[in-house]
Description:
By secondary structure, this protein is α/β, with parallel strands linked by helices. Helix content is 27%, strand content 23%. It is built from nine helices and 13 strands. Strands 8-13-12-11-10-7-9 form a seven-stranded mixed β-sheet. Helix 3 (98-118) packs across helix 5 (178-188). The longest helix has 21 residues, at 98-118. The protein is globular, with a radius of gyration of 21 Å.
Amino acid sequence: MTGPITHVxxxxxxxxxxxxxxxxxxxxxxxxxxxxxxxxxxxxILASSQEKPNLQSRYLAxxxxxxxxxxxxxxxxxxxxxxxxxAGNSPSASSFNYYHWVKQVVSNILFCRKHIKDxxxxxxxCILGPELDEIRLQYIKRIPxxxxxxxxxDAVYRLEKSxxxxxxxGAYDRTHHELFTKLFDExxxxxxxxxxxxxxxxxxxxxxxxxxxxNSEEVEATLTSLDFNSLSLSDLPLDHQIGIFRNARxxxxxxxxxxxxxxxxxxxxxxxxxxxxxxxxxxxSAIAKCRQLNYFALVNxxxxxxxxxxxxxxxxxxxxxxxxxxxxxxxxSMGN
Length: 336
């Protein structure tokens, strides 16, 4: 395949409505089939037949990121024959943000795979995606029939045929759809989820420099008094993380990507998400609603040790947990 690009689907028109980048109620999940797609390997921004960037595909790649026809022409040209699922974008989803990887990229892969397998009759599923770390590779290895091609950062890929979905775009950042639940249950239901961590779990953020807690020792003591076990999820393999969320009766923690595992939680589970007052993100409450979990949001004060800290990004600020409120909410809701 060495000729010019001759046709692309409606997905990659240059005049796409950018309102989809805003958070809110997402549209129905929709597949997009493309012929002769152009993909920039370092950030997975799609380009049209005129090699203009598609605005929707910039979402997970970083909305300030952009590519130009000149950039595409100077990179190595790689041609892939057959039908490929376009997995998603790096670096946000592939390296730094577990939530976007699980909620959007894995969902996109499962959605596209189901159609290729059920409607097109293909057992072997080819994927073009970014380089992955170990936990993300564990997801790929769990999906049957996958052949994963890692895109080189310095290359431009021209795909004979490709498929992706609007699950990757901004409309699905903070919304949820029952389709996600069905897709994950279908693929991950056979994982051995023996309960070795207890039925009350606190997800600590000792492994993160974002949204830290000033009174973490007091918080741990409060939760220990209610028989919660404190865990750092980044230390655990995928099967263990799934087991924790499938078996726990109660899950508590500061807002963070680990709550993406609510996709595996059983109906009726108690969920307590601790927020800082200046950053209330509804993404996990949407998952909880769809899975019929008992969800509580506890809002806490941000503290500033200097005037400059108030100007910092909210992800780098500290909060102080109201431990009296935390104890009372947990004890009352769990019937202690």
